[in-house]
Amino acid sequence: MLKNTPWLVLTALILAWLGFSQPTQASTNHFSVQTELPSNQVNKKVSYFDLKVSPKQNQTIYIKIKNHDKIAHTYTVATNLATTNDNGVIIYNDLRSKPDSSLTFNIADAVAGKQTVQVAAKSTKRIGIKLELPVTPFKGVALGGINIYQQSTNQDDQPKSGLSLQNKFGYVIGLQLREQTKVTVKPDLKLLTVGPRQVNHRNYVNAKLQNPHANLLHGLKVTSYVTKVGSTKQLLKTTKSQLEMAPNSHFNFALGDGTTELTAGNYQLHLKSSAENGAYQWRFTKKFTVTAAKAKQLKQTTLPDTMPPTNWRLIAFLVSIIVLLLALVIWLLIRHRRQST
Questions:
Q1: Residue 92: CB partners within 8 Å, gap ≥ 6?
Q2: Stretch (H or E) spanning 330
Q3: pLDDT in tens, 128-184
Q4: Domain range spanning residue 141?
Q5: What Cα–Cα distance (Å) separates residue 270 from each residue in 85, 220, 281, 305?
Q6: CA 124, 125, 131: angle at the middle one, nearest 5?
Q7: How far is it, in rounded angstroms, from Cα 135 to Cα 53?
Q8: Residue 290 resides in a domain
Q9: Which burial class, exposed, middle or buried, applies to 308 when counting CB atoms under 10 A from its CB (0-12, 13-18, 19+)?
Q10: What integer pLDDT is reported at residue 304 of this predicted model?
Q11: Angle (deg, nearest 10), helices 312-340 and 5-20
């Protein structure tokens, strides 16, 4: 039995190591994209599309997909409306959110539907994207993104060894349309609703902010706090800066760090905001109520404020044991080899 001990120990350690170090199969970026800027490009210093258009205009714009791989790949090309996520960042690949109620012209409706194209190995393909502008003129800018991503293949994108985690590489090309070279729409900001909201089992006060006009809001700063009605004590206070908003979009501005318990009662939101280096400013106050039923529900579904501390002493002990076992295995292997010669 002792003669086989080093091999049994070694086998056990190898199996344990494989259990912790199983590699994740990830996609590889095999392609790149490039735009062909047309003659009606307004800003010729950028690589995205910034086009001056007219009502009822039909136009085809072109991108190039270059496949660097040694095998052919299939790509999906689709255009989405630009929206604003809850971090105050403009995104171009949101397929789940409904367009804001203030939107009158959805840029995705002016672009031909999703395309699926195949590009041969080590080659470049020119892809046409058709635009068809509505009859009714629009003010300001319409903003979206042309999303190009590689479809999964058995070679590099399918999960291996029972793993389901996959990475997808893609590109987004901005698409901005306007009917006037100089956009004269005045920025605006509205507070739509306010109330308690739970995100990932953490409690916040949620202020839904809206950009109701067809222009971008840059350099948005929001300073806010919550009081009980009739009190000046600030229960929650949150300030965020360098936010931005897509045209005709909204996002949920969260107050608090998620750990403050919201008891039943009447509250008031105080919020001030500025944009474009303070050139535009807005102030809002709005009352809201947390009912007893809502407060109970939030408390029951909230995660504990503190997570169990990391037991570094136990981790150090286990690492020491592993090191000693490895040293023992090496010593036994060397001794076994010497006895065999």
A1: 80, 82, 144, 145, 147, 172, 174
A2: helix 312-340
A3: 999 999 999 999 999 999 999 998 765 444 444 444 334 567 899 999 999 998 877
A4: 31-178
A5: 22, 17, 14, 26
A6: 140
A7: 12
A8: yes
A9: exposed
A10: 61
A11: 140
pLDDT tens readout for residues 216-253: 999 999 999 999 999 999 989 999 999 999 999 999 99
Percent above pLDDT 70 for the chain: 84
Neighbours of 259 (CB within 10 A): 13
Q: Is 158 helix (H, G, I), strand (E, B) or coil?
A: coil
Distance CA 235, CA 113 (A): 48
Q: How far apart are CA 267 and CA 286, in angstroms?
A: 9
Question: Nearest to residue 212, comparing CAs of 249, 161, 169?
Answer: 249
Give the H or E element holding residue 10: helix 5-20
Q: Which residue(s) pair with 61 in the sheet?
A: 129
Could you count the other beta carbons within 10 Å of the beta carbon of residue 67? 22
d(CA 68, CA 76): 17
Specify the residue for token string 């936010």.
243
Check whether residue 121 and residue 204 sit in a common domain. Answer: no
Domain match, 231 and 260 both: yes
Q: For residue 8, give both structure tokens.
A: 């049994």
Distance CA 84, CA 88 (A): 6
Kindly tell me if the per-residue pLDDT of 266 is higher than 80: yes
Q: Give the Cα separation of 239 and 217 in Å (integer).
A: 17
Structure tokens at 33: 């994209």
Residue 202: half-sphere exposure toward Cβ, Cα within 13 Å: 11
Number of domain units in the chain: 2
Q: Percentage of the chain with pLDDT > 90?
A: 60
Token digits of residue 230: 């009739």
We report the CATH number of the domain holding residue 44 as 2.60.40.10
- Which residues are CB-contacts of 218 (< 8 A; sequence separation ≥ 6)? 244, 275, 276
Residue 36 tokens read as: 């062909």
What letter represents residue 321's amino acid?
I
Pairing mode, if any, of strands 90-91 and 31-36?
Answer: unpaired
